[in-house]
Structure formats: structure tokens, C-alpha cells
């Protein structure tokens, strides 16, 4: 029986891989990596190859989605293959589909977990993880169509007092990465269409850049202030808090340099 192991690379550099993940990568007969679902800001592919002691074959979105990961499945059937994935391996639905395909072919699968943007955001911001509702991606708007999903998700979470984690669109092959300023412009555009006062200049938001790296940036403030804040290099994420516990408020003031005024929002 062949084997396919999904190994998380974490969020920072090649050093973010776990010891178990490194062991699996070193002993793999064939080693693949996909680097299009997320950006690891400090990853150096040549250093990664030196660390694992073998060549890493990069796979594209086309390889995994259009070709259904056949090159990986074929290698796994012949013996053992490892797929290196940014963050935690099964956060992206693409990889769930690949695992299902492998299992149906009789290929044994396993997962070596790593840090995820989901866990990193809660740790950096101090917001409580069980108070997050549905997450959503804010896409680029240059396709001509307007996706109202991000606006609707933030609105629905807010009604129930839950926080919303917004993933910002990225196109690694084009080297395009949405910034927090870009995302807020998209949301303000949706506010002009919907008029439900979900995204206003006085709304509280938390911007996070390069989570998991050695120099992350986190800033909580009212949207009108965040628009002009320099978060530096990507990747960026955005959180719209719901109801805030007093400890969450204290964390945002202390850890994310939120204005003292938000103490009035504590429940």
C-alpha cells in the first residue's frame, strides 16, 4: 500500500516545520510542495531543500485542481509521497479533496499538523477563539462581478456577537497580495450598495500582517484609522470583532495598541 503524508509548513519560514514534519519530509521517496494557497513571507525554497536533503517538486493550482493531483497520487501509489503545505495542511478544501481521492485509491494518508492563520490570529490579537463565527475571503474585484459574501458574513456574525476572520485574496503566480487597505476599500464599496451600516468609519477592526513570522504587525483601531496605517509586507488578514469580553478589550489595548476608547465596548 502506498502512502501520502500531508505536512504543514507553518506560517513563517522553512524553520516553521515541526520535527515530525521534517522527519517525514526527509524519509519521503518523493517530496512535493504547493505554495499557492498562502504566502510564507520568510520561506526560502533552497534553504528548505537543504534542510530536508532532497529536491522539492513544486505543484501548481492546475496540478492539484485541474489534474486532480494525479502526479502526487501516482507517486504515492508507488511508495511514499509527502506534500508540504503552507499553514495547517487540511485548512484548504483542495487538500481535503486530494486526501479523499487518495483514500479511494487505497493509498494510506496521514497528517502532520502545523500552525494555522486561524490559531495565530487568536494568539496575536488576544481575541477568544471560541467567539469566532464563520470566516470569509475578501476577493479582488477586477473580475467585473461583485461578491457580497464578505459583507453578509460580517453582518451575520455581528448579529450573534461573533468575531469575523477575513482572509485576504492572494494570487501567488501573479505576485498579487491584497492589503488591509485594499480589503477595506472593497468593503466600503459593498456598504455603499447595501446601506446596512456594517462597515462604517467608526467600526472596530484588527489588522494582522505576516502572522507567524519573526516580525508580525498587529493593530486594532477604528476603520478610518486603519485605512492609513502601514502594515508592511504581506500576507495580511483582517478581523471584525463582535461582542468583546473585558479581557479581550484589555488584550487589544495592550497587544494591538487599540485606542483606550474601546474600553467602553467591554461586556
Please specify the SSE layout and strand pairing:
Elements: E1 3-8, H1 19-27, E2 30-34, H2 45-52, E3 57-59, H3 61-66, H4 70-78, E4 80-85, H5 93-104, E5 108-112, H6 117-125, E6 136-138, H7 149-159, E7 164-168, E8 170-171, E9 176-177, H8 180-194, E10 204-209, E11 217-222, H9 223-226, E12 236-240, H10 246-255
Parallel strand pairs: 1-4, 1-5, 2-3, 2-4, 6-7
Antiparallel strand pairs: 7-12, 8-9, 10-11, 10-12
Write up what this structure looks like.
The protein is of the alpha/beta class. 35% of the residues lie in helices and 20% in strands. It folds into two domains: 3-112, Tetrapyrrole methylase, N-terminal domain (Cobalt-precorrin-4 Transmethylase, domain 1, 3-Layer(aba) Sandwich); 117-265, 2-Layer Sandwich (Methyltransferase, Cobalt-precorrin-4 Transmethylase, Domain 2). The protein contains ten helices and twelve strands. The strands form three sheets. Strands 3-2-4-1-5 form a five-stranded parallel beta sheet, with helices on both faces. Strands 6-7-12-10-11 form a five-stranded mixed beta sheet. The longest helix is centred in the last third of the chain and has 15 residues, at 180-194. The mean pLDDT is 94.
Describe, in short, the structure shown.
This protein is an alpha/beta fold.
Features:
267 residues; 5-stranded mixed sheet; alpha/beta; elongated; 35% helix; Cobalt-precorrin-4 Transmethylase, domain 1; Methyltransferase, Cobalt-precorrin-4 Transmethylase, Domain 2; 2 domains
Shape: elongated
Which value, in Å, is the CA radius of gyration? 20 Å
Please list the strands of the largest sheet in the order they lie side by side: 3-2-4-1-5
Percent of residues in beta strands? 15-25%
Helical proportion? 25-40%
Q: Which CATH top level class of the largest domain fits?
A: Alpha Beta
Number of domains: 2
Amino acid at each position: 500500500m502506498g502512502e501520502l503524508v500531508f505536512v504543514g509548513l507553518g506560517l513563517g519560514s522553512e524553520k516553521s516545520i515541526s520535527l515530525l514534519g521534517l522527519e517525514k519530509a526527509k524519509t519521503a521517496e518523493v517530496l512535493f510542495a504547493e505554495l499557492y494557497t498562502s504566502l510564507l513571507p520568510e520561506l526560502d525554497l533552497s534553504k528548505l531543500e537543504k534542510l530536508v536533503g532532497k529536491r522539492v517538486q513544486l505543484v501548481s493550482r492546475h496540478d492539484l485542481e485541474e489534474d486532480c493531483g494525479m502526479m502526487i497520487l501516482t507517486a504515492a501509489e508507488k511508495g511514499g509521497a509527502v506534500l508540504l503545505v503552507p499553514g495547517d495542511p487540511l485548512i484548504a478544501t483542495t487538500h481535503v479533496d486530494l486526501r479523499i481521492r487518495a483514500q479511494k485509491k487505497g493509498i494510506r494518508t496521514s497528517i502532520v499538523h502545523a500552525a494555522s492563520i486561524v490559531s495565530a490570529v487568536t494568539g496575536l490579537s488576544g481575541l477568544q477563539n471560541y467567539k469566532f463565527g464563520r470566516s470569509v475571503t475578501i476577493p479582488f474585484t477586477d473580475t467585473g462581478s461583485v461578491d457580497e459574501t464578505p459583507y453578509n458574513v460580517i453582518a451575520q456574525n455581528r448579529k450573534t456577537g461573533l468575531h469575523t476572520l477575513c482572509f485576504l485574496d492572494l494570487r501567488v503566480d501573479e505576485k498579487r497580495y491584497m492589503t488591509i487597505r485594499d480589503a477595506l476599500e472593497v468593503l466600503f464599496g459593498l456598504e455603499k450598495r447595501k446601506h446596512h451600516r456594517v462597515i462604517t468609519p467608526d467600526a472596530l477592526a484588527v489588522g494582522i500582517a505576516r502572522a507567524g513570522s519573526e516580525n508580525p504587525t498587529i493593530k486594532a483601531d477604528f476603520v478610518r484609522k486603519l485605512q492609513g496605517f502601514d502594515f508592511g509586507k504581506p500576507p495580511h488578514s483582517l478581523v471584525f470583532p463582535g461582542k468583546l469580553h473585558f479581557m479581550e478589550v484589555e488584550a487589544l489595548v495592550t497587544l494591538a495598541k487599540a485606542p483606550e476608547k474601546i474600553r467602553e465596548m467591554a461586556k
